[in-house]
Write a structure and sequence with these properties.
eight-stranded antiparallel sheet, about 25% strand, globular
């Protein structure tokens, strides 16, 4: 019997990234023939652009499948730097760029280059939960940079300075942010970078959702200051999620040390993915990316407008692929025949358990998959009230998917139907706001209330007495 204690403390204490377990389960159900709407990961529902696919196929046909330099193809490093200069007016040179195995690889390299055991790193809370693991991987200590719903989870230079400590060596922020959708202004990013540098630290900016900006055009901290390190990826704007390719931009003097880490940890990024990414900067691929960004903007606008019509407050900037919302009360039937009350407030754990756990009050809606579908995730308390043959029926659930077009609200998780006779516990409840009917699907288990059980026993007793009297 293998001894679990032989595993390292890091392996035993690292929590699962639940969204990936959920994705695995959803894909298994899809493979079994179930119709699945994927809202679990931050992944656009578009296929990878054909120019990128074609470039990768050509590379394989040429036999370009061998290792590249650890920092990436020189041509790709130059293409990334040129994109910064041309699209963002940021004076980036190829010597500052390191191509990585996804943005996760970039984060690992940055933490390895900047953090010593015991050093502290400020992480926004709420924030991307895996960021903590990149810090602890190199012996660092993640410290929360708490953001408040009261001001829309806005991060300010003053708030960062307030949380900075004697052992702080870096602050990791995102713009646009995951999950709040907030975007930091250039002046704010510059002030934060200068503060960090002035206190012997570094500002690391996650710009993974950089291209998915609405209203004002996309920006980069590197246009405003050279005192920052940037993490980015081909996953979101360019639609290359499964290719696992990202990059970082750092001061040129740091790149040799970062490249040494990359040589030892990764050898090199995936070769075929790099040749595909080269085509991402061509006019045709950029036009496709921009067309898809505009479609996401239309979806986002439609969702935000619909939420306003449902008296659902939107918290944060609603950039990227997410919208935050809280405290929902939705009246479906003005005549009172049916009412949907969604209370989406609650603690959503965005990190690990223990003293460094980061929590925030609120919930989020995901709108990346379909024009008319939104989903509440986390731990909302969802309640539906309707009537069945004169008796009130209440459905309670843990999550909700609401289709703006059909008006159908679906409860998932561990929903409960409470009726006069007792309660039913099962897998899913669908409420049709037009017919005001509840439909329960999946396997259900009924628990009768004491009064109903007493009535049934009394009925059984009387029936027995009647049978006895006829003999």
């Amino acid at each position: 019997m293998p001894n679990p204690e032989i595993l390292s403390r890091l392996a035993r204490q690292t929590p699962p990234f639940h969204v990936m377990a959920l994705l695995e389960r959803a894909q298994a159900l899809q493979a079994a023939g179930r119709d699945i709407i994927h809202l679990e990961v931050g992944e656009p529902d578009f296929p990878c652009p054909e120019p990128i696919m074609a470039a990768a196929r050509r590379a394989m046909d040429r036999g370009d499948t061998r290792y590249t330099p650890a920092a990436g193809l020189p041509a790709l490093r130059e293409a990334i730097a040129r994109d910064y200069r041309e699209r963002f007016a940021a004076p980036v040179q190829a010597s500052q760029v390191v191509v990585t195995p996804g943005a996760s690889g970039a984060l690992q390299l940055v933490m390895g280059a900047l953090i010593n055991p015991g050093d502290e790193v400020l992480l926004c809370a709420p924030g991307y939960p895996c960021n903590q693991q990149f810090v602890t991987l190199v012996g660092g200590v993640p410290r929360p940079l708490p953001l408040s719903v009261d001001n829309g989870f806005a991060l300010t230079p003053a708030r960062l300075a307030q949380c900075w400590g004697e052992r702080t060596r870096a602050a990791l922020v995102a713009s646009p942010d995951n999950p709040t959708g907030n975007r930091l202004a250039g002046a704010e990013l510059k002030a934060m970078a200068e503060f960090c540098a002035g206190h012997g630290g570094t500002l690391v900016v996650d710009e993974i959702y950089q291209g998915l900006c609405y209203g004002e055009g996309a920006d980069s901290v590197l246009r405003h200051t050279a005192d920052a390190v940037v993490i980015n990826s081909f996953s979101k704007y360019f639609g290359m999620t499964g290719w696992r390719l990202g990059w970082l931009v750092a001061p040129a003097a740091w790149v040799p040390a970062i490249e040494r880490l990359a040589q030892n940890w990764f050898l090199a990024p995936a070769t075929v993915a790099q040749y595909g990414a080269l085509a991402a900067f061509d006019d045709e691929a950029l036009a496709i990316a921009e067309q898809r960004r505009r479609l996401l903007e239309r979806r986002r606008t439609r969702l935000v407008e619909a939420l306003a019509g449902l008296n659902l407050p939107v918290v944060g900037g609603a950039e990227g692929l997410r919208v935050l919302a809280q405290n929902v009360v939705i009246g479906i039937d003005p005549e009172g025949a049916g009412l949907v009350s969604l209370d989406a407030s609650g603690d959503l754990d965005v990190s690990t358990t223990g003293e460094n756990a980061m929590r925030y009050v609120g919930d989020r809606l995901v709108y990346s998959t379909a024009d008319e579908t939104m989903r509440l995730t986390g731990k909302p308390s969802v309640e539906i009230r309707t009537r069945l043959e004169g008796a009130e029926v209440v459905a309670l659930g843990q999550a909700a998917i609401y289709n703006l077009g059909t008006g159908l609200l679906r409860l998932t998780g561990d929903p409960v139907l409470k009726i006069a006779e007792g309660e039913l516990r099962g897998r899913e409840v669908v409420f049709d706001q037009q017919t005001k009917r509840l439909k329960a699907t999946g396997r259900w288990k009924m628990t009768l209330n004491p009064k109903t059980i007493a009535k049934m026993r009394e009925g059984t007793k009387k029936q027995g007495e009647m049978k006895t009297g006829t003999r």
